[in-house]
């Protein structure tokens, strides 16, 4: 009887560890954020994310709060080249860092796919709205990857609030 209880407890613990290992969403490392921003190093103060399932796949928004020194480094020292290891070796079209506001005539379809859609989750919509405001205001930055299959990785750097929005979508 005692060995049966021990086996059940071990099974439950193994299940919890397995779940946490497989389904625990983690932030990018400081090195990955530095690559995205075209810098040698960054200081990330906080991270949060929101995941939303839609009828075709899922959307993920990651928000990174960056230090003032990181924002200043970006403005003064960034190469302006977007590097995101998840997309570098694929046949994705890349747009390096550009100042906002976005040229909606040139990027209208991608803009509508990434920013114009309403999601089911309230927090998701709030963050999309903030990214949309940032991308439409002067003095911020944006970059993106996209492919023919309507997958988008959009990055918006809000220099006034020190936020980096990473928006990953499959439309």
Number of helices: 6
Span between termini: 53 Å
Low-confidence stretches: 18-22
The profile of the biggest β sheet is: 6 strands, antiparallel
Radius of gyration: 19 Å
Q: How are helices and strands ordered from N to C?
A: HHEEHHEHHEEE
Summarize model confidence as the mean pLDDT.
Answer: 82
Helical percent range?
A: 25-40%
Order of strands across the main sheet: 1-2-6-5-4-3
β-strand number: 6
Shape: globular
The portion of residues forming beta strands comes to: 25-35%
Structural class: alpha+beta
Key words describing this protein structure:
28% strand, 6-stranded antiparallel sheet, 6 strands, alpha+beta, 40% helix
